[in-house]
Amino acid sequence: MAPVLVLVLCLSSLLLLSLWKQSYRKGKLPPGPTPLPIIGNLLQLDMKDMNNSFRNFSKAYGPVFTLYFGMKPTVVLHGYEAVKEALNDLGEEFSGRSDYPLIDKANKGLGVVFSNGKTWKETRRFSLMTLRNFGMGKRSMEDRVQEEAQTLLEELRKTNASPYDPAFILKCASCNVICSILFKSRFDYADQIFLNLMEKFEENIKILNTPWIQVCNIFPILLDYFPGSHNIFLKNYNDVRHFILEKIKEHQQSLDLNNPQDFIDCFLVKMEQEEHNQQSSFTVENLVNTANDLFGAGTETTSTTLRYGLLLLMKHPEVAAKVQEEIDRVVGRHKRPSMQDRGRMPYTNAVLHEMQRIVDIVPMNLPHAVNHGIQFRNYFIPKDFDSKVILAS
């Protein structure tokens, strides 16, 4: 009887502590629905359509509100104005990255997408500078995109205008541009190694969007002691990591410090320059994770934008006709389009921007965190406890 009594007392204390903490924090944070002990607001959320749940909460509590994912408070900024204010006006304050347990378990806090602090700043600055000043191998990024676009067109012509789902081939084309930037070379669309990579990326994207992973990120202990799709994700991640690591070893053997040919070469040159800096962010492990981030983020976002762009043109044939007329007039049928043509194609340029405005490919963005306590729209978002900020469109 005594052990049962002790267990009941412990659980009761834990529940009371949870309620006290939530009540204490709630006084400082924006308003939101009342959370339950331990599970927070999970029962009030549609795990298969989180954005719709956020939309309904914003109607009740305004564009800034608080939800509890388990015992962790989360401030949600919903809608264009609130997100724009956070990212544009207060970009530095909101530039922190919140914990994402499954990703943290995979990348150990490295890379450019989910890292924080000094590592994030240095890796992001280097990546942007390298991609922006793309003189690597004497070939610009535009050259690489044009080459891949030509290959994509040849593949599409093979369909002989018969019904065809372009989703996979668009992913192949987008991924190949990333491969060209990272490794200096592209893959044939039938290459088995390439197809295996594509399969692992696609499977991991699907896994990340499942309710199970949402639950695992709320209760990280599940990642260590329970079976589930998170183990498939980690295996796929490690397989891609091993592939990238082999590519890095090849680059290390052929590296010319005075003539870097691609992103990996440039990163290795930077590593050489900082070899005596014990606190340097430029390590092989960070290179592996940064390359993986560029792979995943660049492939999925670009191919999804292209796919939805084609869908919108199919739904609005009158717009497609005007775009085609401008392309024929400015570029012609036998010349590759280039960035120089952009200034003479205002209608096509406007259509592309409108596509990107309409197509909401990352409706909840990535979880952010404030770098210090901040006053936002009459609410205080503190940093002194484990919280995150979700930016939802």
The CATH topology of the largest domain: Cytochrome p450
The radius of gyration computed from the alpha-carbon positions, rounded to a whole number of angstroms, is 24 Å
Structural class comes to mainly alpha
Amino-to-carboxy terminus distance: 53 Å
pLDDT < 50 runs, ≥5 residues = none
Number of domains: 3
Cα shape: globular
What's the architecture of the largest domain in CATH terms? Answer: Orthogonal Bundle
What is the CATH class name of the largest domain?
Answer: Mainly Alpha
What is the overall number of helices? 15
Major sheet = 3 strands, mixed
The amount of helix comes to 55-70%
The number of distinct β-strands equals 7
- Mean pLDDT level: 84
Main-sheet strand order equals 1-2-7
| Quaternary form | single chain
CATH homologous group name of the largest domain: Cytochrome P450
Strand content: 5-15%
Along the chain, the helix and strand elements come as HHEEHEHHHHHHHHHHHHEEEE
Structural notes for this entry:
This protein has 393 residues and is mainly α. The chain folds into three domains: 102 residues, Uridine Diphospho-n-acetylenolpyruvylglucosamine Reductase, domain 2; 198 residues, Orthogonal Bundle (Cytochrome p450), CATH 1.10.630; 48 residues, no CATH class. The chain is built from 15 helices and seven strands. Helix 7 runs antiparallel to helix 13 and helix 11 crosses helix 13. The protein is globular, with a radius of gyration of 24 Å. The termini are far apart.
